[in-house]
Amino acid sequence: MAARVVLVAAVVLASFAATVSAVAAPSPSDLEAEFVCPTCKTTLDQSDSPIARRMKQVIRDSLAEGKTEAQIRDQLVAQFGPAVVAEPPKKGFDLLAWLLPLGLLVAGALGVGVVAWGWSRRRDARDGEDEPPARLDPDLERRLDAELDRYDA
Amino acid sequence: MSSDARPGRVQRVAQLAALIGVAALLGLLIWKVAFGRTTGAADELAEGKLVHAPAFTLDRLDRDGQLGMGDLKGKAVVVNFWASWCVPCRDEAPVLQKTYERYRDQGLVVLGVDVNDFRQDARRFMKRYGLTYPVVYDGKGSTVGKWGVRGFPETFFVDRTGKLVGERIEGAVDIERNRDAFQRGVALALGNTS
User: Fold this and answer.
1) Which residues of A touch B10 (CB under 8 A)?
2) Is A118 within 8 Å of B11 when comparing Cβ atoms?
3) Predicted confidence band of residue A9 (pLDDT cuts 50, 70, 90)
4) Other beta carbons less than 10 A from residue A38's beta carbon
5) In angstroms, how far is CA A121 from the centroid of its own chain?
6) Which residues in chain B are closer than 8 Å to A50, comparing Cβ atoms?
7) What does the DSSP 8-state code read for residue A25?
8) What is residue A121's predicted lDDT score, i.e. its pLDDT?
């Protein structure tokens, strides 16, 4: 029991340490996926244009100098403008780029839910209705009554 | 027809909304293809239209302050779009510098526009090739669309009234196919020929 507790604690601590280290120091390839080549408009990790190669070099040099991700971002935005960041900013009009897809997803899910609810209500209503009894032909009904009376007699 | 064969109101509204959405998107696509194309000054010049040089004001790299087309009224201007990482730009830099030195007294300015580049790389380039003509910095590429620039280097000619003259030169100005066009463009900008 004690050994199991120690093992679980060790695994948790190791995972925590890995997470902390990943957050503290991004790799060059992580950052290359976050910025866009200003001439070819693809992320740096997908571009081999001269300016993309130069930007990758600047990222590597900046990381080696101990600069943080935020400092590198500010540096590149100061040179090339906000469009150099692959993700749209989360403020102002650009917030729509984040909210619209989420909003459409939620609206779509709600719509599907409402339609499905409507279908199930109509099906329940149909199940609840009694079928009207089938009506016999009047002549046939009289003959049947006569036969049953003879039988009873 | 039995009641369960008729679509409910919610379903009809949903179907209508979906149709309207699709129609709107289709309409937007058609409009964008038919009317959304924006042409730069270079395209209009190639069509033979009379085009004024698109305005811009940008930070200078050769000194403090800003410079724009408006500051160069009355001058003949050779506008050269370049970047330090552009290989042909290195080949043509000496030609542009020599042109500036030769015709400066006649009122010609060579204006370099450094696009999608690092400031320090551009300054290093200017120092390396001994460029003394004014250079402005356009890291974001805001001038590219307005001028119709398709690549680097590209060179345009503006006469003293601010109109684009000659033809847009794509590639280094010193290569054989561009030499005549470059000299013609300089002459037209200066007003030395009709």
Assistant:
1) 114-115, 118
2) yes
3) confident
4) 24
5) 29
6) 83, 85-87
7) S
8) 80
Could you identify the residue written with the tokens 């015709």? B103
Closest chain B residue by Cα to residue A117:
B10
pLDDT tens by residue, A83-103: 999 987 666 776 777 777 888
C-alpha to C-alpha distances, B25 to A23, A119, B17, B21, B158, nearest whole angstrom: 41, 29, 12, 6, 42
Half-sphere exposure of A115 (CA within 13 A, CB side): 12
Tokens read off for A88: 């749209």
Amino acid at B186: V
CA B51, B57, B59, B60 torsion: positive or negative?
Answer: positive
ipTM of the complex in this document: 0.78
Instruction: Give DSSP secondary structure letters for B110-165.
Output: EEEEEESS-HHHHHHHHHHTT--S-EEEETT-HHHHHHT--SSSEEEEE-TTSBEE
Chain A nearest CA to B192, separation (Å):
37
* Cis upstream peptide for A26 (omega within 30°): no
Pick the residue from chain A with its C-alpha nearest to B150: A39
B88 touches chain A (CB under 8 A): no
Nearest C-alpha neighbor of B155 from the set B140, B127, B139, B133:
B133
Entry pTM = 0.71
Residues lower than pLDDT 70 in chain B: 1-7, 34-38, 193-194
Listing DSSP states for B39-87 in one string gives --HHHHHHTT---BPPP-EEEESSSSSEEEGGGGTTSEEEEEEE-TT-H
- Residues across chain B: 194
Counting Cα atoms < 13 Å in the Cβ hemisphere of B20 gives 6
Q: Are A111 and B119 inside 8 Å of each other by CB?
A: no
Which of B86, B87, B139 comes nearest A79 by C-beta? B139
- SS3 annotation, B23-44: HHHHHHHHHHHHHCCCCCHHHH
Write the CA distances from B171 to B83, B118, B129, integer angstroms: 12, 21, 18
